[in-house]
TrEMBL record:
Keywords: Methyltransferase, Restriction system, S-adenosyl-L-methionine, Transferase
EC number assigned by the record: 2.1.1.72
DNA methylase adenine-specific domain mapped to chain residues: 144-477
Reactions it catalyzes: a 2'-deoxyadenosine in DNA + S-adenosyl-L-methionine = an N(6)-methyl-2'-deoxyadenosine in DNA + S-adenosyl-L-homocysteine + H(+)
GO molecular function: DNA binding; N-methyltransferase activity; site-specific DNA-methyltransferase (adenine-specific) activity
Assigned protein family: Belongs to the N(4)/N(6)-methyltransferase family.
Ranges where the N6 adenine-specific DNA methyltransferase N-terminal domain occurs: 6-136
Protein name: site-specific DNA-methyltransferase (adenine-specific)
Taxonomic lineage: Bacteria, Pseudomonadati, Pseudomonadota, Gammaproteobacteria, Methylococcales
A biological process from GO: DNA restriction-modification system
C-alpha cells in the first residue's frame, strides 16, 4: 500500500520532470524505469557477492564486470549503490556516459526486460533532476513486492492522466472483473496480444497469488509461473520496456514480453498456444489487406481492426482455451458480411458464454464509445447453449470526464467487505456481475428479459442474425400513465387563463 508521503514524493518528481523540460509522460516513465532497472541490477549483484562470501567461493555470475570500461571508469562506479553517493554533476556524467552505454551492450540479468534495453536512451536533462530522482527512488522500500508494484502502478496512472499517444489504461477494476470472470488457474498459459503496460497480466498474476498461493510453493508450478505463464505482444518498444518492468516489479521473473505487430505478422509458432486471453486491444480503424496477416484473413476477410483482433484471439487460443476481451459495440450488431460471419463463428463453431455490456463512460475522458466484454471458449465444435447477458449501468465511478468515485473505497470494486444496498448497487454493479455470472447455468436461466441480466438461447440469437446487442433481447416495461380526458384539461386551462386575466386587471388598477 502506498503511503501519502510516497505519493507526494512521486508527484514532486513528476512535476520536476515537467518543469525540467520533459513533458511527455511516457518519456518520464521510461527514464524512471531505467533507474529502477539499475537499482535491481545492483541488488542482484549484491546478492551474488553475499553468496560468494558466505560460501567462500568466486562469484558465479557477475552483473558488473571487473576492471574498467572503454573510457577508463571502474565498473563498480556504474552500480546504483556507488553512484547514488556521487555529487550531482559527477553522477550525471557517470550515468550518461558510462552506465547507459553499458546497459545497451550488456546481457543484463537475462530477463525479458534486459532484452529491451538495447536502445536505451538517457534523456534526463539536468544533474539536479537526476540526483533528486535517484534519491527518491532510493528511499522506497523495494524489497516489498506490493509497495514497488503499487508504486509503479501509481506512476502508470499518471500516463493515463496525461492521455497522450492514444495509449490509455483500461480501468483497473474492469481488468480485475475480467480476471475474476475467467478465474485463471495455475496451469494456464495467458496472453495479451496488445499488452501495453501489461495490466491484464499483472492482475492475473496477483489473482493467482491470492487465490492459489500454493503455486509458489511447488517447484514445477513456480517455474511455470515465472517462465512460462505470461505472454504479451506490443509494437511499441517503450511500452515493452514499461510492461516487462511492471511484471518484474510485481514479482514475475521472466515473462515473455516481445515485439510483435499482432495484426500484421503471421502467427506461426503462436497459434493454438494459449489457454487464456485477456485483452483490450486498440481499435484504430482499418488496415490494408497487404499489411494484414494472411492467417487472420483466412478466418475472416476484413480490414477492420476490431474484427481482425477477434480473429487473432481465435487463432491464438488452444481448443478449450477461454477469452475475456473488450470490443466496441459495433462488433455486436454491425451488419457487414464480416461482422455477421465472425459472430456466427463465435456462436455456432465456438462456445459464446457471455456478453457484459459496459457503461458508455467507462473509458472517459479518452473515449466515450460504448463497449462490451465478450467471454467465449474455443471449442472448434460449437457448444453455445444459452448466452448470458448483463447490462452494467455503473462501475462505482462517475461516468463523466472526471471519473470520481461514487462510494467509499471499501465499497468500490468487488466490495468484499460489505453487501451493497440497493442504492449502493445502483452506483456499483461489479459485485453483482460476479455473483450472477456464477449462477448463469442455474437461477439466471429463469430471469425475465426485463431484468438487469438474463439468458438467451442460441436459437433466438441465430434467428436475429447473430445480433449480440443486449437491446435486441431486453424487454422494456412501460409504466401505464393515466391522463385526464381532453375536455377536463381544456377546462383547467380556461380557469388558469381567467385567473391570469383577473390578475393583470388588478395590476392595472394598482398602477392607476
Amino acid at each position: 500500500m502506498l503511503t501519502g508521503e510516497i505519493r507526494s514524493q512521486i508527484d514532486a518528481i513528476w512535476n520536476a520532470f515537467w518543469s525540467g523540460g520533459i513533458s511527455n509522460p511516457l518519456e518520464v516513465m521510461e527514464q524512471i524505469t531505467y533507474l529502477l532497472f539499475l537499482r535491481r541490477l545492483d541488488d542482484l549483484h549484491t546478492l551474488e557477492e553475499n553468496k560468494s562470501t558466505r560460501l567462500n567461493k568466486p562469484m558465479e555470475r557477475r552483473i558488473f564486470p571487473e576492471g574498467r570500461d572503454a573510457k577508463g571508469r571502474d565498473y563498480n562506479d556504474l552500480r546504483w549503490s556507488r553512484f547514488k553517493h556521487f555529487a550531482p554533476a559527477e553522477m550525471f556524467t557517470v550515468v550518461g556516459e558510462h552506465v547507459f552505454p553499458f546497459l545497451r551492450t550488456m546481457g543484463g540479468d537475462g530477463s525479458t526486460y534486459a532484452h529491451h534495453m538495447k536502445d536505451a536512451r538517457f534523456t534526463i536533462p539536468t544533474p539536479a533532476l537526476l540526483a533528486k530522482v535517484v534519491d527518491m527512488l532510493d528511499h522506497i522500500p523495494m524489497e516489498d513486492r506490493d509497495t514497488k508494484g503499487d508504486l509503479y502502478e501509481y506512476m502508470l496512472s499518471k500516463i493515463a492522466a496525461a492521455g497522450q499517444n492514444g495509449q490509455f489504461r483500461t480501468p483497473r477494476h474492469i481488468i480485475r472483473l475480467m480476471v475474476e470472470l475467467t478465474a485463471p488457474t495455475a496451469k494456464d498459459v495467458i496472453c495479451d496480444p496488445a499488452s501495453g503496460t501489461c495490466g491484464f497480466l499483472v492482475a492475473a498474476g496477483e489473482y493467482l497469488r491470492e487465490k492459489h498461493p500454493e503455486i509458489l510453493r511447488d517447484a514445477e508450478a513456480r517455474e511455470h509461473f515465472h517462465h512460462g505463464m505470461f505472454h504479451g505482444y506490443d509494437f511499441d518498444n517503450t511500452m515493452l520496456r514499461i510492461g516487462s518492468m511492471n511484471l518484474a516489479l510485481h514479482g514475475v521473473d521472466n515473462p515473455d514480453i516481445r515485439y510483435k505487430d499482432s495484426l500484421a505478422q503471421d502467427h506461426a509458432g503462436d497459434e493454438e498456444k494459449y489457454s487464456l486471453i485477456l485483452a483490450n486491444p486498440p481499435f484504430a480503424g482499418s488496415l490494408d489487406y497487404e499489411n494484414t496477416a494472411k492467417d487472420l484473413l483466412d478466418i475472416v476477410k476484413t480490414k477492420k481492426t476490431e474484427l481482425l483482433f477477434l480473429a487473432l484471439f481465435l487463432r491464438l487460443l488452444k481448443p478449450g482455451g477461454r477469452a475475456a476481451v473488450i470490443v466496441p459495440d459495433g462488433v455486436l450488431f454491425g451488419s457487414s458480411k464480416a461482422h455477421k460471419e465472425l459472430r456466427r463463428l463465435l456462436v455456432e463453431e465456438q462456445k459464446l458464454d457471455a456478453v457484459v455490456s459496459l457503461p458508455s463512460g467507462v473509458f472517459k475522458p479518452y473515449a466515450g464509445v460504448s463497449t462490451a466484454i465478450l467471454l467465449f471458449t474455443k471449442t472448434n465444435s460449437g457448444g453455445t447453449g444459452h448466452v448470458w447477458f448483463y447490462d452494467m449501468q455503473a462501475d462505482g465511478w462517475s461516468l463523466d470526464d472526471k471519473r470520481q468515485p461514487l462510494l467509499p473505497e471499501d465499497k468500490l470494486g468487488f466490495a468484499t467487505l460489505h453487501i451493497l444496498s440497493a442504492e449502493e448497487h445502483a452506483k456499483n454493479n461489479l459485485p453483482d456481475v460476479l455473483v450472477r455470472w456464477g449462477l448463469r447455468d442455474t437461477s439466471e436461466r429463469q430471469r425475465a428479459r426485463t431484468e438487469q441480466s438474463f439468458c438467451v438461447p442460441k436459437a433466438d440469437i441465430a434467428a436475429n442474425g447473430y445480433d449480440l446487442s443486449i437491446n435486441r433481447y431486453k424487454e422494456v416495461v412501460h409504466e401505464a400513465v393515466e391522463h385526464l380526458p381532453p375536455k377536463e384539461i381544456l377546462a383547467k386551462l380556461a380557469r388558469l387563463e381567467d385567473e391570469i386575466q383577473a390578475g393583470m386587471k388588478a395590476l392595472e388598477g394598482m398602477l392607476g
